[in-house]
Structure formats: C-alpha cells, structure tokens
Amino acid sequence: MTVPTQTPRTVAGVINSVETLEGAGFLVRRPFPKSSFSEFDP
Predict the structure, then answer these.
(1) DSSP structure class, residue 5
(2) 32 near 18, Cβ under 8 Å?
(3) Averages of pLDDT over each 10 residues, the chain, 42 residues
C-alpha cells in the first residue's frame, strides 16, 4: 500500500462570509455568497 503525498499550497485570497437571515429568522453565514466564483477549494 502506498501513502499519498501532500503538497503544501499557498492561500490565493480570503473571502469574508455574508450574514443572512433565514426564513425562520435565524442568522447564517454563507461562506460562498456568489455563484460567480469559478475557482475555489474549500
């Protein structure tokens, strides 16, 4: 069995979450507020 190797990566950018009220009135934070992000890696 082979062990997978890990390659360190640098952070390209930081995107703040957007606070939104849901239908029941509780606060949620959306980590990806826009669908226009074509490339992201959570």
Answers:
(1) P
(2) no
(3) 85 81 86 62 58
Match 């069995």 to its residue by tokens: 1
Q: 8 vs 11, 16, 38, 40, 41, CA distance in Å?
A: 10, 23, 22, 16, 13
Radius of gyration of the chain (CA): 16
Structure tokens given for 38: 């074509």
Q: How many CB atoms lie within 10 A of CB 20?
A: 11
Do 30 and 22 meet the contact criterion of CB atoms below 8 Å apart? no
